[in-house]
Amino acid sequence: MPLNKINIAVLLGDPSGIGPELVSKLLSDKVTNQANVIVIGEKNILDQGNKISKNSENLIFVESFDQINYQDGNKFFLDISKGKNHKYKTAECSKESGQSVLEALNLALDLAKEKKIHAINFGPFNKTSMIMGGNKHSDELHLMAERLDVNDYFCEFNVVDNFWTARVTSHIPLSEVPLHIKKEKIIKPIKLIYEAMKLNGVKSPRVAVQALNPHAEFGTEEKDEIIPAINEAKKMGIDADGPLPCDTSFITAFKNKNHDCIVGMYHDALQSGLKAFGFDRGVTVQGGLPIPITTPAHGTAFDIAGKNKANLEPTLNSFKIALTMAENKLNE
User: Fold this and answer.
1) pLDDT tier, 138 (very low <50, low <70, confident <90, very high otherwise)
2) Any idea where the domains of the chain sit in the sequence?
3) Which residues, at least 6 apart from 218, have a Cβ–Cβ distance to it below 8 Å?
4) pTM to 2 decimals?
5) What phi and psi, each to the nearest 5 degrees, are found at residue 327?
6) For residue 312, which of 286, 284, 285, 281 has the smallest C-alpha distance?
7) Going by CATH, does the domain composed of 155-276 fall within 3.30.460.80?
């Protein structure tokens, strides 16, 4: 491998959504020349993406990773078709789509464990199709963590314009959230997002921490759990601040640029603000895994699949973050 380039596996995403056309466009962008790119998937899915996007990047096709020779170029297509030429229906969840995604993802994760790739960037998956296809987890993050033998804390980060967010709780009922607002659970995403942002090039991330209750005062969680977690983070050398009231936290931290990231207590307190400010530019980073794994934050967008209307910017931003984090990780 050329010493100045890292290996990034790029996955086409759900074949029934906008992933293949976005990856087709991504491959034509000059930023992909900064890495060795190994696209993993079925040739007919790539061909369909190229047909929609009207792009066609010159890739070197191989049937196993060991066939890759970096002296030949920097963009390869690892074809997992094995004679299969299934035609996937557009804008429709299916077992077959999920199986295709899982096969490509599992191969990429295996290559990561073998240290043959240094990052993964994937087109959007469809959770329903993945479960229909055999994923036993509720989402791809937990599947990735299991296959990569991750035993430590991990969580999802969402990013807009290099402003990052992490949350203490995620997809649980609002009534259960207060049960999880404990100092030891709050400190984990604070530490993880701080380290991840440093890996992405922010030397000393300024971490804002949201309150749980309105105005940070109509309850006891701030005094009993959140403030002690912030103080503990400060003792670790983390520039942590808060608790910020949820209703103004994105104005203070993001719009006014007083912080580089926010850690929140529950899903909607973060996602509402982030999506209001930049849903069309969002990136998801899978935090706490051995290698950087990124994807655009939007979904498979069945409503515009096949129409060549998908915005490339989130995919492009997700590739750039994977590239930067992988390069910095190799130089640690």
Assistant:
1) confident
2) 7-150+289-330, 155-276
3) none
4) 0.94
5) -65, -45
6) 281
7) no
